[in-house]
Design a protein that fits this description.
263 residues, alpha+beta, 28% strand, 11 strands
Length: 263
């Protein structure tokens, strides 16, 4: 071959389109929470504080490899397709809406804002593309399990929902499989309630309250991250490396956690 188009395209994709993160703000995709699992042990769900710390201190200079960037581009293409559909349906309002919460040093961008055709109610949409049997079984469910959002996606969307709860009625997590085109959705909302004499925010999935943690717990982890940065202390890793032989058991454990969220 005189010209390797695949290689050239992949190199351009990483060099020409990838934008590094701003170093001093936290991102909703880094959201995490500490819970107690079914055995009473503390467990971290979502992003790793140590990884976020290294990014914020510019100690992690890694960029996406070409495969990761290709997956990201495919996800963006799926979102673009959905947006065009929603425009033709007459329900599209806006996309790539940025926000900043200076109290918690969070900066983010929501994918899409839509309008319910019958009521005019505004709601947000977080578009996620997935691929593979395990991802499908986790998100869409099968004969043995009920589908649930991926935990890291859920935490991220709860941050968005909390930030826009005065302007958007709720968020939809819209999943699409990059392989077979299967699609699914979850309604995510946040409401305030009283807990131990305090007003707290709780998250709901399809109207069912999440029991294992509150939205305030998610923001508490961002506060913890800020304290590490202010004190210039490197946090311990939240996760231990998982070998391939233990990966399936690890994924099964995460699904059990997702199921426990509503129990």
């Amino acid at each position: 071959m005189s010209f390797d188009l695949v290689r050239a395209t992949r190199e351009f994709r990483c060099r020409g389109k990838f934008r590094g993160h701003a170093p001093h703000s936290f991102y909703p995709s880094e959201a995490s929470v500490v819970i107690q699992d079914e055995n009473g042990q503390k467990k971290v769900l979502g992003g790793c504080i140590r990884a976020a710390y290294f990014r914020c201190t510019s100690q992690d200079r890694r960029k996406r490899d070409d495969r990761s960037q290709t997956i990201a581009e495919l996800g963006k293409a799926a979102e673009d397709m959905l947006v065009e559909d929603w425009k033709r349906m007459g329900i599209f309002v806006d996309r790539a809406v940025r926000f900043e919460n200076r109290d918690f040093n969070i900066r983010g961008e929501i994918d899409v804002v839509l309008r319910e055709p019958d009521t005019g109610t505004l709601f947000g949409v977080e578009c996620k593309s997935i691929y593979g049997y395990r991802a499908d079984a986790e998100v869409f469910g099968n004969s043995r399990r009920i589908g649930r959002p991926k935990v890291n996606h859920l935490l991220q969307t709860l941050v968005y929902t909390s930030e826009f709860m005065s302007r958007l009625a709720y968020f939809k997590m819209y999943y699409i499989d990059r392989g077979d085109g299967q699609e699914g959705q979850f309604d995510i909302s946040v409401q305030t309630t009283e807990e131990d004499g305090k007003t707290v925010k709780v998250g709901l999935i399809d109207g069912e309250e999440i029991k294992l943690f509150t939205v305030d717990d998610i923001y508490g982890r961002f506060t913890e991250l800020k304290q590490y940065l202010d004190k210039n202390i490197t946090p311990a890793p939240d996760y231990e490396p998982v070998s391939y032989t233990h990966l399936r058991a690890h994924e099964t454990s995460l699904h059990l956690v997702c199921r426990l969220l509503l129990e």
